[in-house]
Design brief:
Structural class: alpha+beta
Radius of gyration: 34 Å
Mean pLDDT: 79
Strand order of the largest sheet: 4-6-7-11-10
CATH superfamily of the largest domain: Histidine kinase-like ATPase, C-terminal domain
Strand content: 5-15%
Distance between the termini: 23 Å
Order of helices and strands: EHHEHHHHHEHEEHEEEEHEEH
């Protein structure tokens, strides 16, 4: 529950293992930009006959083309850019666009809106700091272009737009830069967090399934080795009766017998542990037994874990397989309660013909009020006080349990209270299918 995933940045500033932007993709986008800028300049100059510093504009476009060639030569196209590398390249592109706008009328140029493109890309793939830096750079460029610019290319007399219009364009671009950066970054960051949390959930479940598979392998090995080991033991005992005590082989025979006995004990232990780990999910167990198994690892931590039955007397107890989703999901909820409880955790079991319900309640500080609405989302503090932490435990538990048809509700009632509720038919049948989700 208290585990936190940390990302380690690569030492190279322009290439990082955790980069989300592929160099191949960025180079392709920049080549498209070069082609579009070149075509626009030539069409405006030759097609419309506007007075345009065409040589200077093409030189600025050539800078981007040259940087693309250098990137293609010096770095593998499969490389991925981290925060620093992507920020430098997007900042370069923003400056290049600013130079083109300076040569072609500044904010009076209709293409000034393209200054928002690098900000949008940054908000989508970069962290908060680089996105903020590029947003500020866009605002600075927009402000400079409002005061310093060459005349807008035109035929005949030079066109100069009124100051209120220029002020409106400046305001619109600044507000749009800030809004787009904040809005898109928030949405993209939530998507990244959810993706990382789901990956952590899958890894946690895979680990439990791999451990179970390992238990099955151990059982198979114990079964297959049992027969030849028994034969070895029988032969060794026969030899011990036939070899005289003063024979030089007597000591070797005794060693053979002792080691065969040791192998037998080891295989017996493997068989017992694998029975618990691997065969139990194949059985249908009662609801109370499932809960008892889920809380068993947390009973010896100095906190009392009590199970209370509040079922309808006329209803038979439901049964279901001990799937990894149930055991890991309920186990995470119980672990969280034990971790923050002062003395006692109560597990209340209820069932009738329609529903199956488990209430996990502890006598700890309860859930912090600011995070009650966000519980179940990844990387959200689950408790208040000095022990508050950012974790995935509740998210993993909710994801796994909801795969089996459960609904979770969180509340504070003399401590924290988590209510897990299944429709009875979903509990008895869908939990088994949830492992395929």
């Amino acid at each position: 529950m208290t585990d936190r995933q940390t990302l380690q940045n690569s030492a190279a500033p322009i290439r990082q293992r955790e980069g989300r932007l592929g160099l191949r993709t960025l180079i392709l986008i920049r080549w498209i930009a070069v082609a579009g800028q070149t075509a626009t300049i030539l069409i405006v100059y030759f097609g419309f006959g506007f007075k345009l510093p065409v040589v200077a504009c093409l030189f600025v476009v050539a800078l981007t083309a040259l940087s693309n060639l250098m990137l293609s030569i010096r770095m593998p196209l499969r490389a991925r850019l981290g925060n620093v590398g992507a920020t430098l390249l997007l900042g370069f592109d923003m400056m290049q666009l600013g130079m083109l706008l300076y040569l072609t009328g500044g904010l009076e140029n209709p293409f000034a809106i393209l200054i928002l493109a690098p900000v949008t890309v940054a908000a989508t793939i970069l962290s908060r700091g680089p996105t903020l830096a590029l947003t500020i750079l866009a605002m600075v460029l927009v402000t400079l272009l409002a005061f310093f610019r060459a005349p807008l290319p035109w035929t005949g007399e030079t066109v100069s737009l009124p100051f209120p219009y220029a002020l409106g364009v400046w305001t619109a671009l600044c507000v749009a830069s800030a809004f787009i950066a904040a809005y898109i970054w928030s949405v993209a960051d939530e998507a990244r967090r959810m993706s990382d949390a789901l990956a952590a959930t899958e890894a946690s479940l895979n680990r439990a399934q791999n451990l179970s598979a390992l238990g099955g392998l151990a059982a198979a090995a114990a079964h297959e080795l049992g027969s030849p080991l028994a034969t070895i033991a029988v032969v060794a005992k026969e030899l011990s009766r036939e070899v005289p005590e003063d024979s030089p082989l007597a000591e070797d025979v005794a060693l053979l017998i002792s080691q065969s006995d040791r192998c037998r004990d080891i295989l017996a232990g493997l068989s017992q542990r694998s029975d618990v780990a691997d065969h139990r999910p194949l059985e249908r167990l009662s609801f109370s037994v499932l809960v008892a198994q889920a809380c068993e690892p947390y009973r010896e931590v100095g906190v009392a874990v009590d199970i209370e039955f509040r079922s309808a007397s006329e209803s038979t107890e439901p049964e279901a397989p001990a799937t990894h989703e149930f055991m890991h999901g309920v186990g995470n909820i119980i672990q969280n309660a034990v971790q923050f409880a002062r003395k006692r955790v109560v597990l209340s079991l209820y069932w009738n013909e329609d529903i199956v319900r488990l209430v996990v309640q502890d006598d700890g500080p309860g859930f912090a009020a600011p995070v009650m609405a966000s519980l179940g989302e990844p990387y959200v503090s689950t408790r208040g006080g000095e022990q508050a932490h950012m974790g995935l435990g509740v998210f993993i538990a909710q994801t796994l349990l909801e795969a089996g048809g459960a609904e979770l509700k969180f509340a504070n009632s003399d401590g924290a209270e988590v209510v897990i509720r299944w429709p009875r038919d979903m509990f008895e049948h869908s939990i088994e299918r949830s492992r395929a989700i």
